[in-house]
Design a protein that fits this description.
The structure holds 3 protein chains of 3 kinds. By secondary structure, chain B is α/β, with parallel strands linked by helices. Chain B has 12 helices and 12 strands. In chain B, the strands form 2 sheets. Chain B has an 8-stranded mixed sheet with strand order 6-7-8-3-9-10-12-11, with helices on both faces. A 4-stranded antiparallel sheet of chain B has the order 2-1-4-5. In chain B, helix 6 crosses helix 8. Helix content of chain C is about 30%, strand content about 25%. Classes of the chains: A alpha+beta, B alpha/beta, C alpha/beta.
């Protein structure tokens, strides 16, 4: 008989990883991170989204004006130009804006705004403005930037009531960016539980759940939204309304995720290594937690990320049609309501600017999802 | 006099190999360096003969065979010459590697003069069209535009590969065929244009032994009938022994030994060839004999210094020689070559 | 050698396959295992050979309970000799005995979770079954790893860092750590390269010698089967058609299917006379098996009796079982024991 290698006691030492950076020692998540990093577009998208959410988080601070603040003097004013060089060609280190003066177009006799080069307001950081609660907690009047009263700053113009578009977009992003997150979060939990039950137990339970999913998915979405939002009482606090809308989205959104979970569950259940664990006497709960969940959680993250753009578009569409968020609360969809009239778009094209933010966010999420999908299975060659 | 020279010229032409690969190198840029997947491969295939390319996974045998018809992915940087000498004057003395891999010229050779069959026949057929349709398509691109004639040829070919009830089978989709049947259909598609060279990449690996026997038998009888040359790529020495006239053993991107089949099996020279032959259990051999295994595993050929790729696993390695020099090719006899330092000073090549 | 470790009695497994063509059609029943009965002796290697779809993998999985059998018994004789109905084990008993039978899978890429380090993979069965201190687990894992020829300093690596052969060693280590008495090897070497195959086969033999492990070796490769096994069972379409000692089987097969299988194996010997038996036609569809003897459509020796009557597996020689009506009369060709011509 051939002698086998002799076991030495000192070998326990060898169990400590020698190089943490070595790819051979990399866990699933590290490999995914390495793979994700290589996807340039996804990385840029992640930065873009990070920036947008950062802005949304500090919206009240970043926006120069509050949601209710309006000035009837400046109705449908165009975006102001931030200048460094004044009319005489002199350079100023501190940027400034000219006050807008209303005038008449000599040809069309339409009311227009022209810059009043006499009145100049410097752009300042941390100016005093309307009072708000910083992060909803600390009352303060400081805003990130703005101009001294009585000057006005309309970076992206104003709407038909003389409200600053920039402030409204920034404040609206709070709702537009958070509804999909919360909605998808609820769908994630629902999908995980229902899909998991469906995939794990199988049999008649699976059939019933699958049929329910099919029925929900076969509803045309628009009438469904209309029906559901008709059920929301017209005068309710903003928070409640917000919750209702989220639930409407989650109600439809979970079906996709449940399918992903179920499919992965079934395919992983029959993987050799899961059967090996079963033979080794590993308990059911442990198999689910240690083998099944890590196996499909990455796919679920991808599916979730790719579900967010749909929710953003859905929220925008609903609010645009007046079915979702209603005044006084604001979202990008609400802002776009003004762009419903063609003359508004033709005469005041800056009212379409919120659309740009919607497109940017949706694209960023899609690219991010793409990158995550590539990274989701780092073992595939 | 003139007829004599013409005859001599014809004879000389017959002597010339159908395919001669010289110094073929395929490099692939990896994240952690350049992989020399194929590193200076030379071989020739004579008309009507079978060359076996044998080696373990990752030795570069598939890349080599695919380079001939230019179907490797773009990442493969290929150099060397692949001389092709068709009986057809239009395509004689051609360097296949110099042709644009997407161009018209190579496409007229691919499928028409050089056909290929793969391990997994499912990938060779589109699931959207019937088998008959796809075979006919191949015939119509290369042989005849006439639909009726093409169908006749297709049915005839299906019959030749042993598919009964061809009329019915003709209108079936690939998924309705069993594995062996699909492989036969692929062979019939490959042979439908009377190719001069058939490249078979692991043609029976996915099949059961009894079906494998059928397919091998079929390939041999078709070779006898059409006189085509075969390049057989496989890891199975048993198949090599039954099918080939000549064998090239590949290891880590290099041909380490090349010889006529009997010479290779009864007088192997390279330690790797010897190891492979010994590590294989044989039917009819002694039961419970301990197999002579080759220790270790195949390294990755990334940024290899000039040394013998088999050095780490070799029982007969010479330190200071094998691991510092590139191994030259040594002739054992005029048909038997080996890449090993054990034979560099020994023209007679007796085993050490 | 005659002490039984496992008694498989009339094991059946069937699947219901729904027809895709008709919506309300009754599902067809596919009998994957058909009254499989055999005895396994302690310390031996029993190989199960057959072509794809013959049910050999299903049989292995049913025995280790990776899959549930439709009917039949698997009686396991524990180390003290007590008989245990293995398929009906529950609770504490299951914990106690299930570790005795382990399995090694064909594909070393799918049988190891890519998300766990090699150490965790090997330690998992230990942690699931025993309450051990960390240092005890460390000791056991490193011991088993070095015995299976793994480099212990690589244990914290993940499976993707290893080649196929090394992965198979990891799988063997995982099976071995429970100190099983029986290991089911399901095509354990067929995904490996020739030179690596030999390493793993040798390792399995060494371990058997050291620990007196019994193997059920499922394979389609007759050359390996002949090398490794004491007895061989040939399966065809869910039935065992022949069961005999390796010598008896390879020198004198009693079933035409075994004969055909043997002659179809390509030999690394260019001078061997090429007198293969080429079977006609395809492997029959298990959902719609032929009548009588399932092998009759491809059999050269068939008679009307074969078409009508199902042959029983019966003893036709000393410990040689065959399921052929003409097992005694036919003089079938085995593998000639030639001197291996090697340099």
């Amino acid at each position: 008989m051939r002698t086998l290698p002799v076991f030495r006691r000192s070998t326990t030492e060898a169990l400590k990883p020698e190089a943490a950076k070595d790819i051979n020692y990399s866990s699933q998540w590290r490999l995914m991170y390495i793979k994700f990093k290589r996807h340039k577009l996804a990385r840029i998208s992640l930065y873009v989204l990070g920036f947008l959410y950062f802005v949304a988080l500090f919206a009240q601070f970043i926006a120069p004006y509050g949601l209710q603040s309006y000035d009837s003097k400046y109705v449908n004013a165009p975006p102001m130009t931030v200048r460094f060089i004044d009319g005489e060609g002199k350079f100023h280190l501190q940027p400034f804006v000219y006050e807008l003066k209303s005038a008449r177009d000599p040809e069309t006799m339409r009311k227009i705004f022209v810059a009043d080069t006499e009145k100049k307001y410097s752009l300042q950081f941390f100016v005093k403005g309307e009072e708000y609660k910083f992060l909803g907690l600390i009352p303060t009047t400081r805003h990130l930037f703005g101009v001294e009263e009585p000057g006005r700053l309309f970076m992206l113009g104003t709407d038909a009531m003389g409200r600053d578009m920039f402030s409204r977009i920034v404040l609206g992003s709070q709702i537009s960016l958070s509804i999909p997150l919360v909605g998808v979060g609820i769908s994630f939990v629902l999908g995980l539980i229902i899909g998991g039950i469906s995939g794990y137990f199988g049999g008649w339970l699976d059939s019933i759940i699958q049929r329910i999913i099919e029925i929900i998915r076969s509803f045309p979405t628009l009438p469904l939204w209309m029906a559901l939002s008709a059920a929301i009482p017209p005068r309710i606090p903003i928070v409640t309304m917000y919750l209702y809308i989220v639930i409407i989205f989650a109600f439809i959104g979970w079906t996709d995720l449940a399918r992903v979970v179920r499919g992965k569950f079934i395919s992983l259940k029959n993987e050799d290594y899961v059967i090996a664990a079963k033979i080794a006497g590993v308990g059911n709960t442990k198999i689910i937690v240690k083998h099944l969940l890590p196996g499909f959680i990455s796919y679920l993250v991808v599916a979730t990320t790719l579900a967010i753009p749909n929710m953003i578009l859905g929220e925008t569409a609903m609010s645009f049609l007046g079915l979702g968020i209603r005044s006084p609360a604001t979202s990008w969809g609400v802002l776009l309501q003004e762009a419903q009239k063609i003359e508004n778009v033709a005469l005041y094209p800056w009212k379409l600017i919120p659309l740009g933010f919607v497109i940017l966010t949706v694209l960023a999420y899609n690219f991010l999802g793409d990158g995550l999908r590539d990274a989701a299975d780092p073992y595939k060659k | 006099m003139t007829t004599q020279t013409a005859q001599a010229a014809q004879a000389a032409k017959d002597e010339r190999p159908l395919l001669s690969v010289q110094d073929l190198k395929i490099r692939i840029q990896m994240e952690n360096g350049v992989m020399h997947a194929v590193d200076g491969v030379d071989f020739e295939i004579k008309k009507g003969k079978t060359l076996g390319l044998v080696g373990e996974s990752g030795c570069g045998k598939s890349l080599t065979s695919r380079a001939i018809i230019g179907i490797n992915p773009k990442e493969c940087e290929t150099t060397g010459t692949i001389g092709y000498d068709s009986a057809d004057a239009a395509d004689s003395e051609l360097n296949l590697l110099s042709l644009d891999p997407k161009g018209k010229r190579i496409r007229s050779i691919r499928g028409r003069k050089i056909a290929m069959i793969f391990q997994e026949p499912m990938t060779a057929f589109s699931p959207m069209y019937t088998i008959g349709n796809q075979i006919m398509e191949a015939i119509r691109t290369h042989r005849t535009k006439n639909k009726k004639e093409a169908k006749k040829i297709a049915l005839e070919m299906l019959g030749k590969v042993g598919i009964s009830d061809q009329e019915k089978r003709f209108d079936q989709y690939p998924h309705e065929f069993s594995g062996g049947m699909r492989q036969r259909a692929m062979i019939s598609m490959a042979l439908s244009c009377n190719p001069e060279l058939l490249i078979a990449d692991e043609p029976t690996t996915a099949l059961d032994v009894t079906i494998q026997a059928q397919v091998l038998e079929l390939m041999q009888s078709l070779q006898r009938e059409f006189g085509m040359a075969i390049l057989l790529v496989t890891h199975d020495l048993g198949i090599i022994a039954e099918m080939c006239d000549e064998v090239a053993v590949m290891y880590l991107g290099k041909i380490v030994e090349q010889a006529p089949v009997k010479e290779l099996f009864y007088n192997p020279k390279h330690p790797y060839t010897k190891g492979l032959l010994k590590s294989m259990p044989r039917l009819g051999g002694e039961k419970s004999v301990r197999l002579d295994s080759i220790e270790g595993s195949v390294p990755m050929p990334i940024d290899m210094p000039p040394m013998c790729g088999f050095y780490e696993r070799c029982k007969d390695r010479i330190e200071g020689v094998c691991n510092v020099n590139a191994v030259p090719k040594t002739d054992i006899s005029d048909q038997h070559t080996v890449r090993c330092f054990l034979y560099t000073d020994r023209p007679e090549g007796e085993s050490p | 050698m005659t002490k039984s470790i496992l008694d498989v009695v009339r094991l059946n497994k069937s699947f219901d396959v729904k027809s895709r063509k008709k919506l309300w059609a009754k599902p067809t029943r596919v009998q994957v295992l058909n009254d499989i009965t055999f005895q396994l002796f302690e310390g031996e290697t029993l190989s199960i050979v057959g072509e794809s779809g013959c049910g050999k993998t299903t049989l292995g999985r049913c025995i280790v309970r990776g899959m549930s059998a439709s009917s039949g018994e698997v009686n396991y004789y524990a180390s003290e000799g007590e008989r245990i109905d293995y398929l009906k084990l529950k609770g504490q008993d299951a914990k106690k005995y299930r570790k005795d039978i382990q399995m090694i899978f064909q594909d070393p890429y799918s049988s190891l979770s890519p998300r766990m380090s090699v150490y965790d993979i090997i330690a998992e069965p230990l942690i699931a079954n025993f309450k051990l201190r960390k240092s005890e687990i460390d000791d056991k894992v490193t011991e088993i790893a070095s015995q299976t020829g793994l480099n212990v300093s690589y244990l914290q690596r993940y499976p993707h860092a290893f080649s196929g052969g090394q992965r198979q060693r990891i799988a063997i280590a995982r099976a071995l750590i429970m100190q099983p008495r029986l290991i089911v090897c399901d095509e354990a070497v067929s995904a490996l390269d020739v030179s690596i195959q030999a390493q793993i086969i040798n390792l399995l033999k060494d371990l058997q010698e050291q620990y007196q492990i019994t193997y059920i070796f499922i394979s389609h490769d007759l050359s390996i089967v002949q090398n490794i096994s004491d007895r061989v069972a040939v399966m065809h379409l869910g039935r065992i058609v022949e069961l005999a000692s390796t010598e008896s089987m390879f020198s004198q097969p009693k079933h035409p299917y075994t004969e055909a299988l043997m002659s179809a194996v390509p030999q690394p010997d260019p001078e061997r006379k090429k007198d293969r038996i080429i079977l006609e036609g395809e492997v029959p569809n298990p959902a719609n098996p032929p009548s009588g003897c399932h092998f009759h459509p491809r059999c050269a020796y068939r008679t009307d009796k074969c078409v009508q009557q199902v042959p029983e597996l019966r003893e036709v020689g000393d410990g040689h079982f065959a399921a052929c009506h003409y097992a005694e009369e036919l003089n079938l060709r085995g593998v000639r024991h030639e001197e291996a011509k090697q340099a």
